[in-house]
Design brief:
With 144 residues, the protein is α+β, with helices and mostly antiparallel strands. The protein has three helices and seven strands, in the order E-H-H-E-E-E-E-E-E-H. The protein has one domain: Alpha-D-Glucose-1,6-Bisphosphate, Chain A, domain 4. Strands 1-7-6-5-4-3-2 form a seven-stranded antiparallel β-sheet.
């Protein structure tokens, strides 16, 4: 089972792509910081200061302004996340996030899918607010 989340953001694909891969921008909508620019083959350390948390992702594929694929999660293989950017015109882009690799035999499988979907919707909402309206203080607003 894959978890798919799709949003329309009224910005060109380049702006959205750079928000993810540029360490100076990601803190405006998602993680507090990124150790370096996201490029194929790199292992990136992401920090989330609000929760005193840190994690690593392995960048599997990057196609500028079109796609980012990475692995993350509690196991060495992790889940695979594919972020696809489909520019509609110079002022709008459809962004799709697909996460796969959930353990269907886990007793908390449905809970993990719902929690994951909630996280992607929230992150994309923060991204939209950041890019379209300059709002940079939303990411700490999700309460579990």
């Amino acid at each position: 089972m894959n978890n798919v989340t799709t949003f329309k953001i009224f910005k060109p694909a380049d702006d959205i792509f750079e928000a993810f891969v540029d360490p100076a921008k990601i803190g405006n909508f998602w993680f507090s910081s990124s150790s370096e620019r996201w490029e194929t083959g790199k292992v990136i350390t992401l920090k989330y200061d609000l929760y005193n948390a840190e994690g690593k992702i392995k960048i599997i594929e990057v196609e500028a302004n079109k796609k980012i694929v990475f692995a993350w999660g509690p196991t060495e293989e992790g889940n695979i996340v594919t972020i696809t950017l489909n520019e509609q015109d110079k002022d709008s882009t459809i962004i799709e996030v697909v996460e796969e690799g959930f353990n269907e035999s886990d007793d908390k499988y449905v809970h993990h899918l719902i929690d994951n979907k909630e996280g992607w919707v929230f992150m994309l909402s923060c991204l939209k607010c950041y890019l379209e309206f300059g709002v940079t203080q939303l990411r700490g607003g999700l309460v579990k």
